[in-house]
Amino acid sequence: MGNCYSGELPIEPRDAIIHKSPHPHIVVPDITIWEVAEKQAKLHGDKPAFVCGLTHEVITFSELFKRANRLAAAFRNDGVQKGSVVVVHSFNCIEYPVVVLALTGLGAVCSPSSPLFLPNELNRQITKAKASYVVTHKQLENVALEAATNAGLTSDVMYTIGSTKEESEHNFKNIDDLVLQDKWIFKHKRIKPTTRVMLPFSSGTSGNPKGVCLSAKNLLANAMQIGYVEPRGDNFLGLVPFFHIYGVMLIHLSILQAKSIVILPRFMPDTLLGALSKYKIRTAHIAPPTVLFLAHHPLVDKYDLSSTEFVVSGGAPIGKQVEGLVYKRLGLNVKQIYGMTELSPAVNYGEDDTRKPGSAGRMVPNTELRVRCVNTGKDLPANMEGELLYRGPQVMLGYENNHEANQNIFTEDGFLRTGDIGYIDDDGFVFVIDRAKELIKYKGHQVAPGELEDVLNHHPAIADCCCVRGQNATGEEIPKAFVVLEHPGDLTVPTRENVITYVSEPVVPYKKVCDVEFIDSISKNASGKLLR
């Protein structure tokens, strides 16, 4: 299936220059997060594990494990077994970690999907993942039903989460009810830590979304790696979407460290600031746009954020200027975390006592880096820019049923190509300069240019197009389209606004084109590849 990292490092080329993590090697045990949760239920049973920042409902570590057992038993009674793929389509909510833990306990595969997906996009993931079951948020039932029905699934394999007294509109089974029932007994059968348990979708270094096979050990290893460098404390903020691999890692980190996550479903200014203040959160894991909010928005001054010391952000680089603005205004240190879905997700982390402005931090334990020249393919020493390649126990098993993509992303000695350009300095700090890959990163979301081009090319008045990374007035990365019109002299040619509206209809909001420029022709190479 791909790399299947075993802990035994392959023999590297003679001219390889391998930069290693400055941290001591840590031992990743041959267990899964299920066994860790069982242990924490005994040691920290009464401690809050997950707290809803809206309703203030609390699930303790003891209740978490009890609910996961009951849900796993109910799932098994419905036919979910080891290897079954379950798409989880929801906002952040307090039941989400219970679902993830129950599926891991079964050895089933959780395939998280964006709650912003339209029916055709969710259908695509259900189909590609070969999912047999769907868990959706109650607010998203209609979207999920249309997507699942078109994929050949019926309502009896669909479940809802999201606390509400309302009955399911389509008679889906309610996970809130299932976790309270004890009519089924779950007998856990230990799975191999190398078993695939997570199947998020990522565009990788190029192209359309591909299923990323992550093992239980990948996820536990990365939680342990981050746990080694993450500041200790009683709780942290969980605003990062759980459907994103970063959010999945935070669920594992919470269980591993017996720390509480205060969960918020989405970014809402008052709710975010209120949670930071009420729960005296020391570390907040947030997306880059939220960092900008903390730097500039006047509402921030109305709340007491004195307990918060750090904000940790990943998904897109944050410049030195923004880091400086947040520190000057609030005294908060902005720490960057760097990685990708294929890395479970993190390989670099900005630590408390050793940070450099603009850096993604040093490598987490058990991680190695090669910096490869994009022109010669040779490895580079410190302070020279090239493509970043990583190796470690957090590296994915491989892409699902995609031999060609696996060959392209892995080297013979087990390093994974990120497609990102950067360098490592003499002190071991990694700086990410640019992305060699064609992906557009908009508000922390991946946008594949080819997907937008496919929509644009269906417009009858468009002859050709090319989508690239653009910038708005504030310097934020946005999807931009260069468009060649079929008949530019016609009175009925589409305007810039017409094109933007046309693309926005069949895609989720973060994928819409934000800027359009009309040109005479699109540059391509001899084989027809777009020269972006």
TrEMBL record:
Residues 451-529 form the AMP-binding enzyme C-terminal domain. Belongs to the ATP-dependent AMP-binding enzyme family. Pfam families: AMP-binding (PF00501), AMP-binding_C (PF13193). The keyword Ligase applies. PANTHER family: AMP-BINDING DOMAIN-CONTAINING PROTEIN-RELATED, LONG-CHAIN-FATTY-ACID--COA LIGASE. Gene3D superfamilies: 3.30.300.30, N-terminal domain of ligase-like. SUPFAM superfamilies: Acetyl-CoA synthetase-like (SSF56801). It comes from Phytophthora kernoviae 00238/432. The keyword Ligase applies. Keywords: Ligase. This is AMP-dependent synthetase/ligase domain-containing protein. Residues 38-399 form the AMP-dependent synthetase/ligase domain. It comes from the Eukaryota. GO terms for molecular function: CoA-ligase activity.
